[in-house]
Amino acid sequence: MKVDVQNLVVRHGDVTAVDDLSFSLAENKVYGLLGRNGAGKSSLMSVLAAFRRPTSGTVLVDGEPVFENRRATSRICLVQHGVDPADKGDRLKDALSLAAALRENWDAEYAERLMELFGLPHGTKLGQLSLGQRSAFGVVVGLASRAPLTMFDESHIGMDTPTRYAFYDALLSDFMTSPRTVVLSTHLIEELASLLEEVVIIDSGRLVLHEETEAVRSRGTSVTGPIGAVDRFVEGLTVLNQKQLGPTKSAMVYGALDQAHHATARTEGLDLGPVPLQDLFVHLTEPAGEPR
Amino acid sequence: MFDDRSPIYRQIADRIKADVLSGALEADQQVMSTNQYAAFYRINPATAAKAFQQLVDEDVLYKRRGIGMFVSPTARDALRARGRETFFGQVVDPMVAEARSIGVPLTDVIKRIEQLEDGR
Amino acid sequence: MKWPVARLLSSTLLPFTALVFAAGWVAVLLLVLGVSLVKDIGVSGWDMASAQVARWFMFGLGLHLARKLLQVAVVHGRTRREYVAQASAFTVALTAVAAACVALGYVLESLVYRAAGWRQGLEQPHFDSATDVPAVFLAHWGVFGVWTAVGMLVVSGFDRLQTGGVLTLLLGVALILPAVVTVGRSGSLPFFRDLDLTATASLPLALALCAGSWALGLLLTWGLLRDVPVKARAAV
Q1: Residues C227, A53: C-beta atoms closer than 8 Å
Q2: A29 reaches B (C-beta below 8 A)
Q3: Over the stretch A96-126, which tens digit does the pLDDT of each residue have?
């Protein structure tokens, strides 16, 4: 499902959660939505899923506005903590029948397989699940919705590592057999990075970047060597961060390096290395006023 | 599973090339599908597809529509030739530089190489 | 499938409502049996209960309809318009079932009272006999409709306007008053216990008032819910 966001603004009272945001998502890709706490990720997803009306700006899916538009909303699913898919007093099996009754593309058989995969008890009430189980049940609801646009907002919270891996594997194998547009918001960037085809990074409600994950990753380089040599090397480059240890300096630069840079590095004895996506993210979303 | 040295797709491509060179993958043998690679390494299938595309561009693999990817008959020889071209630059030169910096005389290095050659 | 929300509500809330009324009826009977040990029974227990408790129960169902279930429907890709329209239509069926339960309760009670030799005294202006099923049904249907709609309105008001919801509470009272005081006893309302216009209003007029309040309540509810956000409660 294609998503077009134009000049989107979302305000909660005095707080501007999303501030003039524009971007597009293509059909059938897995996106990572990254941002610090309070960056506006959840508000953005709420609007994409028509959970709330945008303050201004437009959100189109497949060319149609989403808010109060059944053709659009029936094809969108957002799984978010604090927004329950059923009453807290409902047993999981009842919560599943609720989803089956309301969701047009609900895949009950797949839901059952996922319940088994995550070891979720049918007879337990939604409100009695542990945090990790609640997350897992959210994943069941999201995947079995078979919605062409499925969004998971921090759906890994409380899951232990084996459960998270089961989630990633289930998501991936389902994505390959029946592709859809998936948006994952997460703090576990390194763990998820290889699953994401593209990343959208937002900060203070604004777009920082939207690119292929591999491209972002290849754009960060750490330069390590004698202080003077490193300083000369990084001149004219975007330096995200620098650290010093005795006579050695390490700088994190952002941007493609050309042949000349590589040649200089060789002759000056500088070490060029990769930067983990997580570190790039941290520095790209550094609050203004702090070292960039 | 992957280090951060180079993009994942390049690492996958390198691994397949290594398998071709070692003979683990033979000429005209089918390689695993993009999806199998993606599931195995827990990566986005688009990334795996990129690795395969790179290998097709380099004539290491060829595509048979509707069936899958196969190792080019010429892949092994081509990779060997390419490996020979870069061998001195990428393997020997750094080794010599390392030997110098830690004080291993080059004559010792040559002696070692001759020993290995005789031992075969 | 057509009308998924209404179907869902019917399959869950109708049996639930019937069950609650059945349980209520048994409870009332046990209470009456208890009292009968001490003194003679001269009034209908069911008459007292259905005038008081049943309305508040319908009010509670209204709260439930407009709040939790709306959220759940939106989460599962339904629109507010779709939900409120079908839930509003559903109040007709819901209150009809409830009114039928009440009417059935009167009939069953009359059998028990006759067997026990008690007098089934009623305090109702629009029907004199517990077995006047059409009148019992209609009077309760109208009143239940108003209470359910007002329940929906009030919870939507607090949901949408926070403390401003107090306004909808006042509005709710305004909607309930004309309907209730013309149909039956206002005893279930605080402050208006003695207000009784049943003598001046015929059943058809009273029912028309009920229908008006009911429709107005639903309309105002829609006004409040049409763009209500689905909010995450203190996440995690």
Answers
A1: yes
A2: yes
A3: 999 999 998 999 999 999 999 999 999 999 9
Spatial contact of C182 and C117, defined as CB atoms under 8 Å apart: no
Give yes or no for C4 touching A (CB within 8 A).
Answer: yes
Whether C37 has its CB under 8 Å from any CB of chain A: the answer is no
Closest residue in B to A28 (Cα–Cα) = B46
Q: Do C71 and A84 touch (CB under 8 A)?
A: yes
Indicate the SS3 state at residue B31.
coil
Let me know how many helices (H) and strands (E) chain A has, helices first. Answer: 11, 14
ipTM: 0.90
At position A221, the amino acid (one-letter code) is T
Please report, as a single letter, which amino acid is at residue A179.
P
Q: Which two tokens stand for residue A238?
A: 């975007």
Per-residue tokens: A164: 């998270």
HSE (CB half, 13 Å, CA atoms) of C42?
3
**Six-digit token string for C215:** 């429709």
Q: Do A168 and B2 touch (CB under 8 A)?
A: no
For residue C93, which amino acid is it? A
Find all residues with CB under 8 Å of C211, minimum gap 6, and list them. Answer: C142, C145
Say whether residue B50 is in contact with chain A using an 8 A CB cutoff: yes
Nearest chain B residue to A278 by CA: give it: B4
Question: Could you tell me the pTM of the whole model?
Answer: 0.87
Count other C-beta atoms under 10 Å from residue A29's C-beta. 18
CA distance A180 to B57: 28
Whether B44 sits inside 8 A of A176 (CB atoms) is no
CATH number for B8-73 (one of 3.30.1490.20, 1.10.10.10, 3.10.20.30, 3.40.50.10860): it is 1.10.10.10
